[in-house]
Design a protein that fits this description.
By secondary structure, this protein is α/β, with parallel strands linked by helices. It has twelve helices and six strands. Strands 2-1-3-4-6-5 form a six-stranded parallel beta sheet, sandwiched between helices. α2 crosses α3, α3 crosses α10 and α11 crosses α12. The longest helix has 21 residues.
Length: 267
């Protein structure tokens, strides 16, 4: 059957009883306020320790973007950071791919969005893996003069795949990248490149990039071992991560476990 939402709601509303109990609503609002506070604390960097936490990048993008900006984001960790830190206001637009395992959608969507809406700011939150797959298409920005701002979360890995491997007890395998300096590469093809390596550079670098009249690539060197914690942790996840850490130590990769602790426990 096919129908429209107006007719469906008109038929449905007389059959519904109005509820006055707001317990569930208030409980949800309280939970959100607590979660929002905890997430914002992760993006509030108090030290200059490298590498940059990706949360700081995402929040700075949201803070400095225009009120009607169009954001696109790659599948994987950029999806997590976009969902948690991009503030939507009814005027901004958020575009993504919602198929698990799809890659390299963000910059392609950004090119299309900028071509369709020349007067709006368009920002692509790209993973280094997704961006690397579309390096040829990156030339389109210079060729057509599209002022897209491409933010590359450069952690030298397929970050979300690594998390999946670790949470199921596997040592990460086949996820390494040997990335170039993407900012220098951008400059070589006539696009403004900005490389961020230190937390103290983030605010100014993001603000400068978003204010620039033309395409920009922001090469944000972020922590590879940042954990994108889910809303709830299952026993299976805890077992898998414990197994991964045991295997890493036995295999002579204890430095990975130490980096994991430094990034997520001793911020």
């Amino acid at each position: 059957m096919a129908g429209d939402i107006r007719t469906s709601l008109q038929a449905l509303l007389p059959r519904l009883d109005q509820k006055s109990d707001q317990h569930h609503l208030k409980q949800a609002q309280k939970h959100y306020a607590k979660s929002r506070r905890q997430l914002d604390e992760l993006a509030d960097v108090k030290s200059g320790r490298r590498p940059i936490h990706p949360q700081q990048i995402a929040k700075a993008i949201s803070d400095h973007a225009t009120e009607d900006a169009i954001f696109t984001y790659d599948v994987g960790l950029p999806t997590v950071w976009a969902a948690r830190y991009l503030t939507m206001n009814g005027k901004r637009r958020l575009l993504g791919s919602f198929w698990h395992g799809s890659m390299a959608n963000a910059m392609a969507q950004a090119i299309g969005a900028q071509a369709a809406f020349s007067g709006r700011q368009v920002i692509s939150l790209s993973g280094d893996g997704g961006f690397s797959m579309l390096m040829g298409d990156f030339l389109t920005l210079a060729q057509l003069g599209l002022p897209v701002k491409v933010v590359v979360f450069n952690n030298s890995a397929l970050g979300f795949i690594e998390l999946e491997q670790k949470s199921t007890g596997f040592l990460n395998f086949g996820t390494d990248f040997k990335n170039p300096n993407f900012a220098v590469m951008a400059e070589a093809v006539g696009i403004r490149g900005i490389r961020l390596e230190d937390p103290s550079e983030v605010e100014q670098g993001i603000a400068e990039a978003l204010a620039y009249d033309g395409p920009v690539l922001i090469d944000a060197v972020v922590s590879r071992t940042e954990l994108a914690m889910p809303p709830s942790i299952t026993i299976e996840m805890a077992k898998g991560f414990s197994l991964y850490m045991a295997k890493a130590i036995i295999s002579g990769r204890a430095d990975e476990v130490i980096d994991l602790a430094k990034t997520n426990l001793w911020r």
